[in-house]
UniProtKB/TrEMBL annotation:
MF annotations from Gene Ontology: helicase activity
Disordered: annotated segments: 104-132
Extent of Low complexity compositional bias: 109-126
Keyword ATP-binding in annotation: yes
Protein name: DEAD/DEAH box ATP-dependent RNA helicase, putative
Entry-linked Pfam families: DHX37_C, OB_NTP_bind
Gene that specifies this protein: PmlGA01_140005100
DEAD-box helicase OB fold domain segment(s): 269-355
Keywords from the named record: ATP-binding, Helicase, Hydrolase, Nucleotide-binding
Species of provenance: Plasmodium malariae
Length: 516
């Protein structure tokens, strides 16, 4: 990956990205700046699961402990254990999904043929006999895969299970309901979610709290042996977390219904873990490779990823499979080959705004867009910029989206200085605009030494928002005054000295608690 970055510096067009911005991107993620194995790396290596899942779990643990949301940790243990198992569904269910679609098509074709042959019954007796024989042969073959149950469903029992609570766990049983009814329960449960990750979270927690786990597995078409292994692995992960992080977490704090905060923590960690498995809907591809390819594929359903030269599709068991329209972008866990195509598993849809918030080596941002311009959100005390992310593995531009700048972002203090000076952050600063001889680009590009002094004063004192600057002025009311005077010295004279003294700091005296 690092060789690719250095290759980009030498070959990439200046219109796409400047050499300076690429070098800054490399410095942020370059592992050469780190010596030895960090504590985080040691924790990842201690987990008995794949590195990808270990990173997801580690990220959840660190974020959850930082904000005291420990209930998301056992939830994450269940999720990574589920992903590690690759597939928790029974073999019969996977066969039914795979061959069920063919049966429906066959029945549809047969019914249309029956309608077309109504007027020719006498002339087509031989044809009907031959077709019946072939149907009998096909039915016998299908019976090898599917269980046939001739028991009729009790209508009263069906109506009693119409409610959605606890999936009618107490009333479902193998003796009363056939596979078709169970399929409906699972498919109805899938309709509640728009991605596989949320589906797995709720499915695993429901299994954990189920009174009769065998019956639950039968109803939801789960592999009982794998689900038992999932619980064992989850408990083992909890033990490692307690030893390594010196905590006392257990499954007693597991939420029956994942909270929104836990869900957001896990989603962000999964996005960071799956970001190199990024699929783009085929109609959004703009690079030369796919534009000039002669591959034939379904344009409405196909996706392209940097890991495959062929189009890939959503697998038929995924929650996303029946959603329309298909999402623009999908993060997936792995790809497998079917008879005729490649399909993605464990899919998570991601929108444009989420892409702009990702801090990852795969997402490169070449500065910030000038149109629409950056703005200061005074209510949330945040600087908002528009960015056009560039997904490096695919060399694919992503749509323009907004991003909240943090102190670790490129040019953060330059934008902070600009919004202080232009009056967006402190309206009283507008009184000094008549003395300005600089432009927006002068501050952002830091063209003069005086701007560097002003920006460095903010950085060295860790002033990263309006609240921090107000707090600084409470203890030091002449903070930034000298640096500001150096910016307006060309148009400044002794007559204006009193104006500066009366208005600095540029706040009401009631806000800072001092007389000015």
């Amino acid at each position: 990956m690092w060789k690719i970055f250095h290759l980009l510096i030498n070959q990439i067009n200046d219109k796409v990205a400047s050499r300076k911005s690429i070098e800054n991107h490399i410095k942020i993620f370059n592992p050469e700046h780190k010596s030895g194995i960090t504590l985080t790396g040691s924790f990842i290596l201690s987990l008995p699961i794949s590195t990808r899942y270990a990173k997801i779990l580690t990220d959840v643990c660190l974020k959850s402990l930082a904000i005291n949301q420990t209930s998301s940790i056992p939830l994450a243990c269940l999720l990574v254990s589920c992903l590690y198992m690759e597939s928790i569904f029974s073999y019969d269910y996977k066969l039914s999904v795979r061959f069920g679609k063919k049966e429906k098509k066959k029945k549809g074709n047969n019914s249309s043929n029956d309608i077309g042959n109504i007027g020719n019954v006498g002339s087509n007796d031989n044809y009907d006999n031959g077709r019946n024989k072939s149907n009998n042969i096909n039915n016998n073959l299908m019976n090898l895969f599917f269980k046939k149950n001739n028991d009729e469903v009790n209508q009263a029992e069906l109506s009693s299970c119409s409610s959605e609570s606890s999936y009618c766990e107490n009333t479902f049983s193998p003796e009363n309901y056939d596979n078709n009814m169970n399929n409906n329960v699972l498919e109805d449960f899938k309709l509640k979610f728009d991605n596989d990750i949320d589906f797995y979270l709720n499915l695993c927690t429901s299994f954990y709290f189920a009174d009769d786990k065998n019956n639950f597995c039968y109803i939801m078409h789960l592999d009982k042996k794998k689900m038992d292994e999932l619980l064992k692995l989850s408990n083992y992960l909890i033990k490692i977390i307690n030893v390594k992080l010196n905590t006392s977490i257990n499954f007693d704090i597991l939420e029956k219904a994942p909270s929104e905060l836990s869900r957001r923590i896990i989603h962000y960690s999964v996005v960071q873990g799956f970001i190199d498995h990024f699929a783009i809907r085929s109609d959004l591809i703009r690079n030369d490779y796919t534009r000039n390819s002669n591959l034939s594929f379904n344009n409405k359903k196909a996706y392209f990823t940097q890991n495959m030269k062929s189009p890939v599709y959503i697998n038929s068991t995924s929650v996303l499979y029946k959603n329309r329209p298909y999402p623009k972008y999908i993060l997936y866990n792995y790809i497998m080959k079917n008879k005729k195509s490649y399909v993605m598993y464990d899919c998570l849809n991601i929108n444009d705004s989420d892409l702009g918030k990702i801090t990852n080596v795969c997402i490169y941002i070449n500065g910030y867009e000038k149109i629409p311009p950056a703005k200061y959100d005074i209510q949330n005390d945040k600087i908002i910029v528009c960015v056009k992310p560039f997904y490096l593995p695919c060399s694919q531009y992503l749509p323009i989206t907004t991003k909240e700048l943090s102190e670790n972002d490129f040019l953060f203090y330059n934008y902070l200085a600009f919004f202080i000076l232009d009056g967006s952050m402190f309206p009283k600063m507008s009184n000094f605009k008549i003395f300005y001889s600089h432009s927006f680009n002068d501050i952002i590009n830091c063209n003069h030494q005086n701007f560097k002094h002003f920006i460095n004063a903010l950085r060295s004192n860790k002033i990263n928002n309006r609240a921090a600057l107000i707090s600084k002025w409470k203890t030091q009311n002449n903070f930034l005054k000298k640096e500001f005077l150096s910016l307006i010295e060309r148009k400044f004279n002794k007559c204006n000295q009193r104006l500066i003294n009366d208005f600095w700091p540029p706040l009401d005296s009631t806000k800072i608690g001092i007389g000015v």
